[in-house]
Write a structure and sequence with these properties.
The structure is a single chain. It is built from 2 helices and no strands. By secondary structure, it is mainly α. It has one domain. Helix 1 crosses helix 2.
Length: 54
């Protein structure tokens, strides 16, 4: 599964993966969180991950 799905609780790891994806010029990137804490996921990515990509 790890060959096909990126799994990590490390925010820096997600930033690095997403930065590589942005550099590949994808038309769309979809983030999927399987945790039940959806609001927390949105808040954390909005505060920590997304700003690091701009």
């Amino acid at each position: 599964m790890l060959e096909h799905v990126r799994i990590s609780a490390n925010l820096q790891q997600h930033i690095e993966w997403l930065q590589k994806d942005i550099n590949l010029e994808f038309d769309e990137i979809i983030l999927h969180n399987v945790n039940k804490e959806q609001q927390q996921f949105i808040e954390v990515f909005g505060e920590k991950v997304i700003p690091a990509l701009t």
